[in-house]
From TrEMBL, chain A:
It comes from the Bacteria. It comes from Nocardioides ganghwensis. This is ABC-type quaternary amine transporter. It is an enzyme of class 7 (translocase). Its EC number is 7.6.2.9. Signal peptide: none annotated.
Amino acid sequence: MSSLSITGVTKSFGTGPTATRAVDDVTLHVPHGSFTTVLGPSGCGKTTLLRLIAGFLVPDAGSIAFGDTTVAGDGVRPVPPQARHVGYVPQEGALFPHLDVAANIAFGLPGHARAGREGRERVAEMLDLVELPAHFADRRPDELSGGQQQRVALARSLAPQPAVVLLDEPFSSLDASLRGTTAIAVRRALAATGTTALLVTHDQNEALSLADQVAVMRGGRLVQSAPPAEVYLSPSDPQVAEFVGRAVVLPGTATDARATCALGEVVLSEAATGPVALMIRPEQVYVDLTHAEGVRGSVEEVSYYGHDCAVQVRLDDGTSVLARMAGVRHPVAGDTVHLRVTGLVRAYRPAGAP
Amino acid sequence: MAVLALVPLAYVASYVVAIGPVDLWQLLARPRIAELLRNTITLALACMAATSVLGVALAVLVERTDLPGRRLWHGLLVAPLAVPAFVNGYAWVSLDRGINGFGGAFAVVTLSYYPLVYLPVVAMLRRLDPALEETAFSLGHSRTRTFRTVVLPQLRPALLGGALLVGLHLLAEFGALSLLRFPTFTTAIYDQYGSTFNGAAATAMAVVLVLLCLVLLLADLRLRGDRRYARVGRGAARTAVPLALGRWRLPLLATVGGVVVLALGVPAFSLLRWLVAGTSTEFPVAELTEALVATLALALAGAVVTTLAAIPVVWLAVRHRGWASTVIERSTYVANALPGIVVGLALVVASLRLVPVVYQTAGLLVAAYAILFLPRAVVTVRAGLEQAPVVLDDVSHSLGLGPLATARRVTLPLIAPSLGAGAALVFLAISTELTATLMLSPIGTSTLATEFWSASSELRYGAAAPYALLLVLVSIPATVLLMRADSPAAQTERVPA
Amino acid sequence: MTTPPRRATPRTAVALAGSLLAASALSGCGVFGSPDLVVYNAQHEQLLDEIIPLFEEESGLDVELRHGKDLEMANQIVEEGEDSPADVFLTENSPAMTIVDNAGLFAELPESATATIPEQYVPADRTWTGFLARSTVAMYNTDTMTEADMPASILDFADPEWQGRVAFSPTGADFQAIVSAVLELEGEEATAEWLAGLKANGVIVQNNLVVMQSVDSGEVDAGIAYHYYWYRDRQENGTDSDTSALHFFGDQDPGAFLSISGAGILASSEKQDAAQEFVTWLTGTEAQQAMAESYALEYPLNPDASLNPEVKPFDELEPPAVDVANLNGPQVTDLMTAAGLL
């Protein structure tokens, strides 16, 4: 086990005018034993980054190091993937269809360890780790559900005790119901083994809920890497804000730690002055059904999800605002409500401003 | 290997260059060539049209109507594929000598080849999403109008592909047409070969034959390209509601039965008759065994060589897509369009002039088989390698395995079934190959096909019967493989002439 | 995941290993082994299959036959040249021998090999020898024709009255030999005319057996072939000869041409002794008698051998005088190609 350091890594595809920079000067540190998710829309370069780390691709510039060992860049001859000791969990698991579960898990173990008691014990240990029953060892991949396949794929990657585990959108093909439980099982297994892990995803919920650190990529560049709450509540720019969750962005005017906008006065997380764009999460917008405190508006549309609901409100000044509230008691379209903002609000320089 | 596949083309091209346009023109601009051209083209067009009509009609009857016993009919309608066309020709001509010339050739070849249209059309009908038809009904279209406007257009690629295959087969057909006394380029080349070994006139005819084949091949490649985009989503879970035939039921049933009787019953009857007549006088167990052993040995060697040769071709085509790999893959298809007679002629000359050591060896014959049947192996193995996505290699590398270990522990085990299937198809194709075997078989080696040919062309019909029976028996497994209409082989089946 | 293929590794491996084994076994078990004598045979396969075992038994030599047609094999031997695997060449008809002889590829035969054969059937330089003879005939259907309706000369079949009534097999070496005799006796122009007439009149079939069938079934009135096809059928069950009869041309007509089957030894052969032993045996009384008594019914050239008396006796034939060493095969194929028969 070791940390993972990526420094100034760049990778382009194609040559000449049609060349595209898939990964552009990315620097990221994943501490030993921690879990980082790389979040970005499709085509942002996150999978390329992962393949560079795994060794399937060689960076044009920059370096990649596991702990103190540089595996690519810095004039070091790139270490081939089979010598990097990375665990790799691709999309849809990619279990070897001709091998049963036990043989899949034991695949990366040295020859002497694959056969015999040692191998069987390791397989059993790994199945236990990913929370699958021991008798699954004899099953074939096509007898497993998608989630089970992903757990076996993780077990397979962890069995040889890799330095780093890389997961490429491992849950994207699973049903919503399986996705959560599988993800939690994976996180527990990684935590139990103290494995350094990097997971690539386009799903913000997944990225935020699993990781110690979220790295947001856009157009090949790393735009923010921070703990999940910071990325969510204090995104580096409004686009990141809108990518990691629903956001209400309102123009306002700031004076030091406070600003005024259509939702009244809000408290800023960082002091600012003059015209700003304010990013408010819908769950920061409190919908008061009983008291006439705050800014008045009328409910246009309610989407009820059970555990909560989203309420679209048209303020008296015409601004449309999304609020999210617990689903216990909720308004219906046409109701008059009062809104106010709770918690700290992040202010950005408005678009087009110098 | 791909280079070897181009030997026949290179032979024809170098001949054209060597002889020069003037002499070539003199060899070509003569009444005999015009006669052969007329014969070849009219027979090809007539058979392509007849097999198309028959193939589509039978496929629709079996797949989309309430014809009684549809599953049984399907099996019986595919079964003629197990009877090599030259055996079918023998069966008919030995029954009635009046069956010959254009009429006889047209009838026998159509009855032999219609499954080449029938099979892909059936496969396409099964893959069509009935929702399309249901949508058409819901829009108020009648059943017949729906069939014409919705179903038929979608069958077009399968139909055209099958018809082109019939054309290619026909251009290469030697045995049946020779027995039925209808000269085409292939039989004429063989006759010239018999009189001059490798005379200029034979090669000049080969030039024309190759050009005809290339025309069909280009049409086929175009179609293949289109087909990739036109492919219909797999696995329509529901099947369309069968069309009620009503009062047409009995007449149509009789028609389908009639086709089966003509395509299967008559050859079976004729074969059995001669078998009984032949075995009552002599049953040459030793000769039969020897021919069978030689056939199986050659087929085995050819299947192994061809399948091994297919691996690098497929590897390049699937894993390293690029113009070079495409050219290599396609060049094997070009060879596939070349009739056995041209491949045989080219290898005789090339081996004599360039590598006399291999001349008249089993190795050269195996090379000819590899050239002729590489595409079958390529198509099958390709389907297998596509089942082994590159991500599995990535996983294996990440687990510490180098390229060789990955090939051994991941890729090979995964493509093994398709290697087996490819080898099986090639094996069976070789065991019924006639033309190239006649020209290239080593001294003292006779196969089922050559022994059958020698007996039937000397009108020893009874003596030919046991060989014909064995030829049919070895063809049955391939037919069963092909009956699974979805198998990739069904779309590229090449029956040797 | 797509449904993965089932595990098939061990079975496939076994199949592969098995086929490799079989391939190597093949090279050892004699199918590809090296024989004592290689004979390129353009004579009837069945005849050689009958008599070769006699020679093998007597000499203890192992003989391999490669079968083909006269001109195909002659041209093949010329093309193969010094590298030819053939030790001995046997033909149905002599024009093929001439092709090989003209290329200088035959070794001179030992006197013993030609001692029993009349000298007109051996070229002066003894590069090869005749060993069997066959007479040109016309067959006719006895329901539609009588002997009196048959023409005096084979050249008459080119007349328009024979339109659609005469069958022949231009791709066969036999017919090509007959053409070579016509060419030798009548010259190029007359031969080309005759071929053009036949192309217009004739029903083209793939071999002489079919000629006989077509005549016997009444599909045509007459056909050009050699004598033994009809006699063989009479001797067996007669189903293809019971409504037909033979018409022998007389008077040294080209249609009475007596074609000679030849045997020669390739100069390139490294097995001269075995080859000489074989050819000597082939012309000797024992083999000649064996062939005479076989199904073949061709005329043995060794006067000590006697043929079934049912066959028209050899000394009653009236063949034209043709130098057997001088029949031109290549010019015949050219003429026939020009006539559109090939």
